[in-house]
Here is the input.
Amino acid sequence: MEETENQGLVPLGTSARNVFKSGLKLVHLHLILAIEDRGQISAAAEALGISQPAASRMLGEIESILRAPLCERVARGVELTPYGKALARRARTIFLELRETAREIGELKTGRGGSVSLGSVTGPALHLAVPAMHQVTTAYPGIEISIQVENSNVLIRELMAARHDFVIGRIPDDIDPRQFDLVEIGSEDVCLIVREGHPLLEKPVIVHEDLPGYDWVFQPAGTLLRRSVEDSFLSSGVPLPTTTINTSSIILTLSIVRNTNAIAPVAKDVAELVASNGTSIGEIRILPIDFAITIRPYSLITPRGRELPPSAKLLYDLILQESKG
Here is the structure.
């Protein structure tokens, strides 16, 4: 967006009271965060449930209030200027404080022992988060825990938006890691799964060349697990699968695999849990492949400078302890 003429720049360090008196609203802050997360005004507008022209007008309002250009156009959409990034950073802090205020008031009203929101990739959610949550809820029956199981790309953006206290995952390549504190706690084995009776199970060992002819169920493009599988194909000189279904849902992935000849990469913990559960969805088998699919270790991740509330710190410490057990 173009800078307004000869108006000077209002320092973003100006008191919040003066800024909000000038007309800045929470919806403006939501828009700036949506633009930063999505890189396009149209996508930000869709996320907020408004039209693109309305989002553009709103962006103009914010720039007029702050007397600073907040966005600039780039090849793939828009990105925030240093002024926009400063506003987005402060906006995340504001929304975090509002969330913590609502949580504290809710706990005072209900007399509960606190609440925690975390996100995790699938493997450590099963063997680290679940046992730790059981310990917490047993010791503190009034505590409320919310967990989102997703890929790291989604989880880190949710963490940046102050929707989680911490996550177990990995920092995507397009996110600045300096925004976070990380404690590496483990690695995740990846395997390929197919249905019971799949033609490939007739082979004692599966090589890359056996795989491209089948449909594949992948996580969305750009996710770390998918890139690891694709790198495995490329390093072996074998073409990537041409027919793919993209989904982040493990339930949908298992359903597709069980009912077709599709192949899917999943965390080994998930595959072993499903294959041994004795139900129809357990008609899943792990392919005996002759190569390894490597993915970066996962970490406990918190935003730098954000102190965990007591209930979240309790769960965080138990997960860290569980990872060393």
